[in-house]
C-alpha cells in the first residue's frame, strides 16, 4: 500500500476479486490502478473483470444460492451479526481504507464504518422476521397463505461516495432474505468492498453467496451483463439518473426486479421562525459532508427574506472554521473531490452563477496548491432559477443560497425539479411542519434536522430519483417475492 499509513491488519487491503469463496484475478490478467484522490499516489491495483469473468461470478452466485436460500433465518441472522461485529473490531483499518481511496476525512470515515456495520446488525435482526400472512378466502372451503421467498441472485452496483455503507445497505437485506449477491465495486474506490469480502470470508459466509468483482474500463460492459443475464433476478443500483435509465432499459429484456437510488437536487428551506443555530448545524451536516458529495446533500438553500442576511453571515462564519486537505490529517475537516472531472463540474457551476449575478461570500476557487482534486468550500448568495446549480446536482462543496418571501413560494421552488430524493426545512411552527413535510415532492424529509440516514429509516426517492427503499423493515421487501398458496379443504 502506497500511503502514509500502514494497516494493523494488512490482509484487509485485498487486491483480487472474491468469487465462490476464493480470491481470483481477471482471466485476462489485466488490472487497473486505484489512486488516493488527495495525493494521487497509487494505493493498489485491482482486476479488470470483463463479461466472461462476470458471467462466471454470476454462475457461482447461483450455485451458492441453492443451499443458502434454504438455511434457517436464525443462521443467516448469526452470519450477519458476525459480519457487523467484525467490522467494528476492524473499524480503524476500514476507516483508513475509505480515506485513502475516497478522500473523506478520517472522522467521517470512522462514522461511515459504524453506520455500515449498523446495516448488517439491523438486517440480522430482520432475518427471522420475514413473515407471510394467513388471509381469509372468499370461498370458505379454501385457505390462503402467503410465503416470502428470496428473489434469487442479485446484482448490486454500488457507488464510490460511501464505499462501505452502500455495500452493507444492499448486501444486508439480500443475505437476510436468503439471496446470493454479486457486488460490482466502484472503480474509484473498490478496496472497501474487497475488505468486506475478506470479513465475509472470516465470518464463514458460504461459498458463492457473497461475491465482489472489480472493473474500470469495462464498467459499462459488466453493468450490461448484470442487467441482462437471465440468472440475475434483481438489480440494485445507486448512482446517477442517466445511468439508472440505461440500466433499467437493459434490465427490461429479462424483467428483473429493480431498486434504484438515483440523483437528487435537495432543497433546504429555512423559514423565518426557525431556530437559526439549529438550521446552521443542519446545513453544515448535510451540505458539506464529504465535501458535498452525497446524493442527499442540500443543493438549493432557500432562506426567508427576513432572516436572509443574518443566516448568510452565520454560514460564512461557520464555513471559515473548516480545514480542507488530506483526509489522513486529523485536523482536516474536508477532503478532496473524487477526481478532476468532479472539480471541473463544480467550477462550471460556480462560474455560471457568478456570471449571472450571484454574490460570492466565501471560496469559489480551485485549491491547486493542495492538488488537482481540491475545491474550496464555497458560499454564494442571491442565486436565481436560471443558474445551472438550480437545475443540476452539483455534487460538490458549494452552498448556493436563494431568498424567498412566502411558504408557497418556497415549496414551489423546492418542487420545481424532475428529481425528488431528499428535502429539508426548519421551522418552529408545528402546523407548517406538517404542511410542508407533506407538500414536498421527495422520498425523505428532514424536519429541523440535516441528518436523515439511519439503518432503521427507509431510504429512497420519487420522480426521477428512482424507486424502491433501502434500510428499515421495507428494505427486505426489495429482495423477496410473495408466493400465494390456495389450499382446498
UniProtKB/TrEMBL annotation:
Keywords: Oxidoreductase. One of its GO terms (molecular function) is succinate-semialdehyde dehydrogenase (NAD+) activity. Its EC number is 1.2.1.16. It comes from the Eukaryota. The active site is at residue 261. The keyword Oxidoreductase applies. It catalyses: succinate semialdehyde + NAD(+) + H2O = succinate + NADH + 2 H(+); succinate semialdehyde + NADP(+) + H2O = succinate + NADPH + 2 H(+). GO terms for cellular component: cytoplasm. Residues 23-485 form the Aldehyde dehydrogenase domain. Coiled coil: none annotated. Pathway: Amino-acid degradation; 4-aminobutanoate degradation. Pfam families: Aldedh. GO terms for biological process: gamma-aminobutyric acid catabolic process. Belongs to the aldehyde dehydrogenase family. PANTHER family: SUCCINATE-SEMIALDEHYDE DEHYDROGENASE, MITOCHONDRIAL. This is Succinate-semialdehyde dehydrogenase. It comes from Conoideocrella luteorostrata.
Amino acid at each position: 500500500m502506497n500511503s502514509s499509513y500502514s494497516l494493523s491488519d494488512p490482509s484487509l487491503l485485498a487486491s483480487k476479486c472474491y468469487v465462490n469463496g476464493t480470491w481470483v484475478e481477471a482471466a485476462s490478467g489485466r488490472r487497473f490502478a486505484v489512486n488516493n484522490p488527495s495525493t494521487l499516489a497509487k494505493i493498489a491495483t485491482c482486476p479488470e473483470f470483463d463479461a466472461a469473468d462476470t458471467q462466471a461470478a454470476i454462475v457461482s452466485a447461483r450455485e451458492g444460492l441453492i443451499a443458502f436460500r434454504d438455511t434457517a433465518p436464525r443462521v443467516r441472522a448469526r452470519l450477519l451479526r458476525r459480519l457487523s461485529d467484525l467490522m467494528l473490531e476492524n473499524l480503524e483499518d476500514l476507516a483508513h481504507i475509505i480515506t485513502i481511496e475516497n478522500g473523506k476525512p478520517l472522522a467521517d470515515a470512522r462514522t461511515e464504518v459504524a453506520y455500515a456495520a449498523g446495516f448488517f446488525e439491523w438486517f440480522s435482526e430482520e432475518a427471522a422476521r420475514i413473515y407471510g400472512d394467513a388471509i381469509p378466502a372468499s370461498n370458505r372451503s379454501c385457505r390462503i397463505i402467503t410465503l416470502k421467498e428470496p428473489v434469487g441472485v442479485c446484482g448490486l452496483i454500488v457507488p464510490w461516495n460511501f464505499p462501505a455503507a452502500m455495500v452493507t445497505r444492499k448486501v444486508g437485506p439480500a443475505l437476510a432474505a436468503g439471496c446470493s449477491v454479486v457486488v460490482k465495486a466502484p472503480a474509484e474506490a473498490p478496496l472497501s468492498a474487497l475488505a468486506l469480502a475478506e470479513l465475509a470470508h472470516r465470518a464463514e459466509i458460504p461459498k458463492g453467496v457473497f461475491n465482489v468483482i472489480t472493473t474500470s474500463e469495462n464498467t459499462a460492459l459488466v453493468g450490461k451483463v448484470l442487467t441482462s443475464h437471465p440468472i440475475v433476478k434483481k438489480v440494485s443500483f445507486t448512482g446517477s439518473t442517466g445511468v439508472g435509465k440505461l440500466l433499467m432499459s437493459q434490465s427490461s429484456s429479462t424483467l428483473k426486479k429493480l431498486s434504484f437510488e438515483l440523483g437528487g437536487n435537495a432543497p433546504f428551506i429555512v423559514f423565518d421562525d426557525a431556530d437559526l443555530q439549529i438550521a446552521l448545524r443542519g446545513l453544515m451536516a448535510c451540505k458539506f459532508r464529504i465535501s458535498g458529495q452525497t446524493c442527499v446533500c442540500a443543493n438549493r438553500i432557500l432562506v426567508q427574506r427576513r432572516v436572509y442576511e443574518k443566516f448568510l453571515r452565520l454560514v460564512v462564519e461557520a464555513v471559515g472554521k473548516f480545514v480542507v486537505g488530506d483526509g489522513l490529517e486529523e485536523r482536516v475537516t474536508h477532503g478532496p473531490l473524487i477526481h478532476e472531472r468532479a472539480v471541473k463540474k463544480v467550477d462550471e457551476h460556480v462560474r455560471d452563477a457568478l456570471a449571472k449575478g450571484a454574490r460570492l461570500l466565501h471560496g469559489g476557487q480551485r485549491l491547486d496548491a493542495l492538488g488537482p482534486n481540491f475545491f474550496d468550500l464555497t458560499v454564494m448568495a442571491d442565486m436565481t432559477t436560471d443558474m445551472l446549480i438550480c437545475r443540476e446536482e452539483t455534487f460538490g462543496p458549494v452552498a448556493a443560497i436563494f431568498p424567498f418571501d412566502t411558504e408557497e413560494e418556497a415549496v414551489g421552488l423546492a418542487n420545481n425539479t424532475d428529481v425528488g430524493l431528499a428535502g429539508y426545512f426548519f421551522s418552529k411552527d408545528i402546523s407548517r411542519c406538517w404542511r410542508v413535510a407533506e407538500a414536498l415532492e421527495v422520498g425523505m424529509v428532514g424536519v429541523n434536522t440535516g441528518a436523515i440516514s439511519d439503518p432503521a429509516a427507509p431510504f429512497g426517492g420519487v420522480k426521477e430519483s428512482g424507486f424502491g427503499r433501502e434500510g428499515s423493515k421495507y428494505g427486505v421487501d426489495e429482495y423477496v417475492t410473495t408466493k400465494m398458496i390456495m389450499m382446498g379443504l
